[in-house]
């Protein structure tokens, strides 16, 4: 077959090479632009949510500025670093030349999680312990009067300066104030030796109505851990309690900067990669947060606890015993910190006991808790786990002294 | 509007050089006001939150604003030149002014109202100063480079929030490296790879656990590789030409290592066979001094330029033939001309300086004879 040679019948793309190239190039550039825009969002989220500056900025400054001031205000700066329920910081101080008064802040409550005010008063006891340690470290004696004014129910304590007291028996407690944090991360399998537990128990000396019940043995530990998980499930299943817990969670850096209180992602003891991812992702819903908390309680908190401790008192409803129990709890936490131990407060059981009491519901936890304590005449006031940490705890935000006086 | 004495080249008719210079003034004003705004926010931001946008981190944002405000100042330097900017540079200038002018409204609040408005107006003037379509084309051509710079700015944003401070410094330097990477000249060669690595590896390595910095670094690296390689392929392919690459290396080495001590030697009179010649910058109009090997015949000075018209001073004297030569402790004016028909090898041989001739032959890539007729005969010549 012959014919006039025409243009080769090539592939379509050969006839329009330029347009295909241009199309490919534009598609590539478009995709790259989308990716860069995504990187921009990621970068802004990193910047905005403080992913790269854990524990930096004004909400965390009280942790580094609590020693400098030799006055009583400086002692308050140490008091505000105490353990307290959900980092609600429910305290107000009145400072004069020779006294510091400690009041409960009626506006700062954790609602149905603490309907009888137990945790709040324990937390105020913790602050009182720090306050006394800081005053004695400043060379003063300190006389503590609990509930000094029965006509003012929120007036929890008055600390009056006295002539220089005896030297602080264990200065390491005061020194540990700035390093004490709740460590919600995993603990190693290293046991806490009986000598250490005996030393922590001895911190209650001189207060016969306040003691510590320890759970270092595997069987007892597992039983208490199981009850804690059950209580956590009950809290998550109780819409009001879940909402009240969620109200104290600060998921964004903006909220942390604004409120300087509450629980944060930094405080959850997460691995660095997990923590950064959590900060980059949008804030979790209440339901997702509850599920995460329950999972952590089951697989980390109870699973890696080297031992539990329960502060026990003869009357858990007595404000005086709550304050004294809080002081002991803070001393134990400080002493544990000084020994390189980590501690996490785990009050789910008592939160359920008080919730059931306040609503008139059937008491499903009180009897089981009493059985585990196995100390007739004593009641559990506050529970914690203890152990050697896998990673250090991060700082919690704190309101400055100027906001609490 | 009055035009400067130099008329624009024919291919850029309609270009309003006066507008460009007006934009330069606005860039300078806006940039300086921006620096002041950043400093005020960084130093007193927490005391005047209403003016600085109620920021929780006024120090970091103030420092970022100061850094970003340096860009309009650099752009002002471009715009002040005596010749119209290329469409590429105008596109970059507009992008830079709009980006900085816009972004900083979110960093220092009301303090940015004035500098921001000035910079945005300046961007509009740059766009209006010449062919608008050419600017859009240039924008499309430089899109990839712009993306790399954008990723660099993202890294900068993350870096200023990082702690401890040394990590933040590493991040800021990395972000700046990425931001300038696409715009440094092809002469950067291996340096552009160094910039790319500096912009991606150290900060992401130090903060690998953050998820975001490694992700951004990977994206920056991929886009950066495309940009660095694409620059070599762009016509005219200066960088892929072996001779051109050698020339770029020689010029860089001369500029950094050889010229400063040789200039000093000439000024001190301890470097025979060399003179300083002073040309007028073809783009800037500024005085440029270059040390060259030379041979004098009465009132004529002969120079063999190693890199021919690739040397800046030769291109300068092509545009502005009036030059000055440092001779005998004083400056002597003269008229320079290139002689492309002259045989540079023969000319070099007549210098009678074998060492100089050897160096020129060894390092030269495009020898070219330059003749300078001095206005006054030199005594003792």
Structure notes:
The complex is a heterodimer of chains A (405) and B (381). With 405 residues, chain A is of the alpha+beta class. In chain A, α4 (118-137) crosses α12. The radius of gyration of chain A is 27 Å and the shape is globular. In chain A, 44% of the residues lie in helices and 14% in strands. Chain A has a four-stranded antiparallel sheet, covered by helices on one side. Chain A has a four-stranded antiparallel sheet with strand order 5-8-10-9, with helices on both faces. Chain A has a two-stranded parallel ribbon with strand order 6-7. With 381 residues, chain B is an alpha+beta fold. Chain B has three domains: 1-141; 149-233; 259-374, Pnp Oxidase, Chain A (Roll), CATH 2.30.110.10. Helices cover 57% and strands 12% of the residues of chain B. Chain B has a six-stranded antiparallel beta barrel. In chain B, β2 and β3 (300-305) form a beta hairpin. In chain B, α8 runs antiparallel to α9. Chain B is elongated, with a radius of gyration of 25 Å. Residues 1-12 and 235-240 of chain B have low confidence and may be disordered. Chains A and B meet through α2, α9 and α10 of A and α6 and α9 of B.
């Amino acid at each position: 077959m012959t014919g006039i040679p025409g243009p080769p019948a090539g592939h379509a793309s050969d006839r329009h090479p330029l347009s295909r190239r241009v199309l490919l190039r534009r598609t590539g550039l478009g995709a790259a632009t989308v990716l860069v825009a995504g990187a921009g969002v990621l970068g802004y989220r990193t910047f905005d949510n403080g992913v790269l500056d854990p524990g930096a900025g004004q909400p965390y400054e009280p942790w580094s500025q609590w020693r400098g001031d030799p006055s009583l205000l400086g002692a308050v700066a140490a008091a505000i670093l105490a353990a307290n329920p959900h980092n609600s910081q429910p305290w107000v101080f009145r400072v004069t030349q020779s006294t510091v008064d400690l009041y409960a802040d009626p506006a700062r409550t954790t609602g149905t999680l603490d309907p009888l005010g137990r945790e709040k008063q324990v937390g105020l006891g913790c602050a009182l312990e720090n306050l006394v340690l800081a005053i004695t470290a400043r060379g003063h004696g300190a006389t503590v009067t609990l509930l000094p004014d029965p006509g003012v129910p929120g007036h929890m304590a008055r600390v009056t300066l006295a002539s220089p007291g005896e030297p602080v028996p264990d200065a390491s407690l005061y020194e540990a104030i700035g390093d004490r944090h709740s460590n919600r991360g995993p603990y190693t399998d290293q046991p806490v030796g009986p000598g250490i537990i005996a030393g922590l128990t001895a911190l209650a000396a001189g207060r016969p109505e306040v003691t510590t019940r320890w759970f270092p043995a595997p069987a007892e530990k597992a039983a208490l851990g199981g009850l804690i998980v059950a209580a956590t499930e009950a809290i998550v299943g109780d819409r009001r309690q879940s909402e009240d817990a969620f109200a104290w969670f600060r998921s964004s850096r903006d909220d942390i900067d604004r409120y300087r209180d509450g629980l944060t992602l930094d405080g959850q003891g997460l691995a660095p990669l997990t923590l950064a991812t959590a900060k980059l992702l949008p804030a979790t819903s209440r339901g997702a947060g509850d599920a995460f908390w329950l999972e952590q309680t089951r697989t980390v908190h109870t699973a890696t606890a080297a031992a539990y401790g329960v502060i026990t008192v003869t009357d858990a409803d007595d404000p005086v015993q709550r304050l004294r129990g809080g002081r002991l709890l803070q001393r134990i936490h400080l002493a544990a910190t000084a020994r390189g131990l980590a501690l996490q407060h785990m009050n789910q059981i008592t939160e359920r006991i008080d919730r059931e009491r306040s609503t008139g519901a059937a008491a499903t936890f009180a009897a089981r808790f009493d059985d585990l304590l196995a100390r007739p005449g004593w009641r559990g006031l506050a529970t914690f786990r203890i152990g050697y940490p896998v990673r250090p705890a991060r700082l919690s935000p704190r309101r400055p002294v100027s906001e609490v006086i | 509007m009055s035009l400067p004495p130099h008329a624009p080249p024919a291919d850029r008719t309609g270009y309003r050089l006066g507008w460009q210079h007006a934009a330069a003034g606005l860039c300078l004003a806006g940039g300086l006001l921006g620096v002041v705004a950043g400093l005020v926010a960084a130093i007193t931001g927490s005391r005047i939150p209403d003016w600085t946008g109620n920021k929780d981190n006024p120090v970091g944002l103030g420092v970022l604003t100061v850094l970003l405000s340096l860009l309009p100042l650099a752009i002002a330097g471009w715009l002040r030149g005596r010749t119209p900017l290329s469409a590429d540079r105008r596109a970059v200038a507009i992008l830079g002014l709009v980006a900085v002018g816009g972004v900083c409204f979110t960093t220092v609040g009301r303090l940015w109202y004035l500098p921001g408005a000035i910079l945005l107006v300046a961007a509009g003037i740059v766009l209006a100063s010449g062919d608008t379509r050419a600017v859009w084309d240039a924008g499309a051509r430089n899109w990839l480079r712009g993306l790399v710079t954008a990723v660099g700015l993202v890294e900068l944003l993350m870096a200023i929030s990082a702690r401890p401070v040394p990590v933040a410094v590493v991040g800021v330097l990395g972000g700046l490296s990425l931001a300038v990477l696409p715009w440094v000249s092809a002469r950067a060669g291996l340096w552009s790879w160094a910039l790319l690595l500096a912009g991606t590896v150290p900060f992401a390595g130090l903060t690998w656990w953050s998820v975001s910095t490694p992700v951004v670094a990977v994206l920056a690296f991929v886009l950066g590789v495309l940009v660095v390689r694409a620059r070599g392929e762009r016509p005219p392919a200066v960088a892929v030409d072996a001779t051109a690459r050698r020339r770029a290396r020689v010029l860089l080495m001369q500029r950094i290592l050889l010229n400063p001590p040789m200039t000093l030697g000439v000024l001190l009179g301890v470097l025979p066979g060399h003179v300083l010649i002073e040309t007028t910058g073809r783009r800037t109009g500024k005085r440029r001094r270059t040390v060259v090997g030379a041979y004098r015949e009465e009132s004529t000075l002969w120079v063999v330029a190693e890199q021919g018209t690739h040397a800046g001073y030769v291109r300068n004297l092509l545009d502005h033939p009036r030059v000055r030569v440092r001779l005998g402790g004083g400056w002597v004016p003269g008229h320079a001309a290139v002689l492309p028909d002259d045989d540079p090898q023969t000319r070099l041989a007549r210098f009678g300086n074998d060492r100089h001739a050897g160096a020129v032959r060894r390092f030269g890539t495009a020898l070219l004879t330059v003749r300078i007729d001095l206005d006054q005969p030199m005594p003792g010549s």
